[in-house]
């Protein structure tokens, strides 16, 4: 591993960790504008994190080691996940350790810890949130894997950096299979990141919560880490989406001169993606929890359809 | 044939398959008719692109015929029907959507496998899309069997005919004009007769639920 | 050429005229006259073709050879006699208030239109137009099946429409595949769908495509023939529609659909070289005979009984055509004629019997011989004829089919014999109960039209006893064409 590669990896990881709350703030701000409110400003998540870090953590009396360790594990998993996805360059030594399938596994690890910790304290809402989260995950994970298989088939590899290299440098063509996979990916993104129409991130009614219900018992630094991890997860998914379906502008390995351009292009793409997400959320209504399997079933079908189209029609 | 044209044709074919799946899962009657009109439009566009690529003039006529019949005339008739039957905002309950979609995927695989020996023999540039045509025929057939109300069954029947038309275009650059005109006439008359039927069914059973029409047995 | 135009023009003109004045008292007679004109034109056409050989007319649009001209003559004849029957029958129905003005106009014009579409299907040279005409034949009769607007008839018509529609769509796919194979040999354009050209090059057509195409065509058109397991629409449609429609559906439409299958089988046989097409037809035919025979004993409605009998006989004919060879094909053609005439005669008698007793339930029809010996004897003789008793024509054709089967496919004979025996027992016992015993029938205000019944039965008797040489020659020519 050369210094250049290490520097590239470090740069991308730090950029992601620092920029994730900004992405979340941007999405919330866009939602506010679309709903004709003035909104809290794009830096609000940072203010939240600073406020939380200054407070004293309060733990339930029957909380075990799992409850205290979980935020750190989750945050670590998310940092690892985001450092595998090519953001500005395909020069990522960490990526050799994990391909897309392992990425899905990392996300699953984080989710399992979150769910177990939520059930650890024994509150009703914690178990509620944990069960719902696992239901959605059960259905979203196969869909996500199927979505990954289509670009993997096109580029003949499951490593994200190789996929991005292949896709970014192909001639500009229409790939219907990728179109199917893209729609399926957006649906999975909405489900996994607790956005409308699957889950309302701004709700305060516990019975309608899925993701928020698991965070009810956390406070101070633990809550800060969980919130940051949530933002990182959104960043990861957005980065995966951009890398798979709109990879132009990502710098090639070792070409440092392209990196500033790549950062600018990334910022523009994330801004666009965030605005698009806010638009989708504004246009949809949250659906009832028993409809979530249908929604994810549709995503799975679309992803399989994309894969079939690729295999059988070669397009 | 240029790569761009092949891409556009493949894209339109995939869109057709997507529409067939969407019709399978769609519960609202109005949106079903819109999807059917969209399917007709994609079909007409596809025929026009093929006509432009290989330069056969009769395919332009075919595209215009499809446009007039399946995008304008038939959806208009269906709109009038659902207005007069007062079922415009009908939402049909549908059980087992996931199972139906899984069966749909299996049918798509079967169709592709069935079509591959035939498409290798076809002499057209669009032969790769024969599998998609067969798949959309089978999906429309699945839609017909799994529906409870009369009008979605009929729309499934019409979309099966769309799939067959697409198969004809992709395998043989369309049938001879006289046959296509005959088929178009048959479809039009068929829809009229279906319309008359809906009123008869409604008059007799006070509902368009197909389960009322399953009483005749060897009694 | 002029006769062909008359054959097609008379029913079309009749349909147009009757669309406007079909409710007047004169309409019944007008319907009959239009059918008579069609029959006369068909007779002249037949004489011309038998004397002069096959005709290809009008820029190769129409093709008349021994096979379809005999079917054209049969169709025109049965359409005429059914129109004679319908003249009385429908008048009684109208007097009983079952038909309104609009429905009568629809009935008369669609009757002629139906004849027109069947004749187009028989005479066309273009396989695509054959498909269009078959679909049009379905469309014309759908509204007629639901003419009485009872819940049962609407259900029957809906099933008929949907099932036959799906079947026809499959047949369209088969036609597309046939066109695909033909295009490679004959080039693009209209000539690739012309049967005469296809027949000339059938050895060069791609075998795999033709095999798949024939399967789709068999399943598609086979739905309209009523082959099991695609027969679900048939008993309902034949039972719930007005009797003249049951007669033409049973007697004529099933024949035309089988004609479409056989024309395509000729092409498939030429292309494939093996007997797959024939074996498929034999399989479906045998299945139909056995299943229909076992269903016969369960029937409680007289028209459903004879509808299942139609399925059984179409199965026998399909089996015969599947076996192939001069004797079996000859027998198949003979059976087509005899079944058509006998089944329509039976439906005429059944129609009047149902009108006299006011019901279609077998248990409620009793003692027809007492009030109306002609209807009773018509039904009795018709049933005996259709069950294959000598000296009627059906016996002769079934005998030939069975002997050929014993010689070439002995494994099938036990099934055939058992099925025929079961059918005999079932139908005979029910008919005996209906014809003899204490009567529940009443007199009709009009004299029943039994002239057609006895003409048909007389013809079938003649066919059974002595086939005129020109007719035998005619069948042999057709059989040679089919191969």
Any key phrases for this structure?
heterotrimer, B: 219 residues, mainly alpha, 7 helices, 77% helix, globular, C: 483 residues, two-stranded antiparallel ribbon, 1% strand
Q: Look at the structure and give the mean pLDDT of chain A.
A: 88
Uncertain segments of chain B are: none
How large is the share of residues in beta strands of chain B? under 5%
SSE pattern of chain B, N- to C-terminal: HHHHHHH
What would the principal axes of the Cα set say about the shape of chain A?
A: globular
Euclidean distance between termini CA atoms of chain B = 61 Å
Number of domains of chain B: 1
Would you kindly provide a written description of the structure presented here, covering whatever features stand out?
- The complex is a heterotrimer of chains A (315), B (219) and C (483).
- Chain A has 315 residues and is mainly alpha-helical.
- Helices cover 68% and strands 0% of the residues of chain A.
- Chain A has 10 helices and no strands.
- Chain A is globular and about 60 Å long.
- By secondary structure, chain B is mainly α.
- Chain B is built from 7 helices and no strands.
- In chain B, helix 2 runs parallel beside helix 6, helix 5 runs antiparallel to helix 6 and helix 6 packs antiparallel against helix 7.
- The longest helix of chain B has 29 residues.
- The termini of chain B are far apart.
- Chain C has one domain.
- The model of chain C has no long low-confidence stretch (mean pLDDT 87).
How is this fold's topology laid out?
The complex is a heterotrimer of chains A (315), B (219) and C (483).
Chain A: H1 3-34, H2 44-53, H3 65-84, H4 100-120, H5 124-155, H6 160-168, H7 176-192, H8 220-245, H9 259-283, H10 292-313
Helix pairs in contact in A: 1-3, 1-8, 1-9, 2-8, 3-4, 3-8, 4-5, 5-6, 5-7, 5-10, 7-8, 7-10
Chain B: H1 3-25, H2 29-54, H3 58-84, H4 97-121, H5 130-145, H6 150-172, H7 177-205
Chain C: H1 2-21, H2 25-52, E1 55-57, E2 62-64, H3 66-95, H4 101-123, H5 127-145, H6 151-186, H7 195-200, H8 207-225, H9 233-240, H10 243-272, H11 276-296, H12 302-323, H13 326-357, H14 368-371, H15 373-386, H16 393-408, H17 413-435, H18 451-465, H19 469-482
Antiparallel strand pairs in C: 1-2
Helix pairs in contact in C: 1-2, 1-4, 2-3, 2-4, 3-4, 3-10, 3-13, 3-19, 4-5, 4-10, 5-6, 5-10, 6-8, 6-9, 8-10, 8-11, 9-10, 9-12, 10-12, 10-13, 11-12, 11-17, 12-13, 13-15, 13-16, 13-18, 13-19, 15-17, 15-18, 16-18
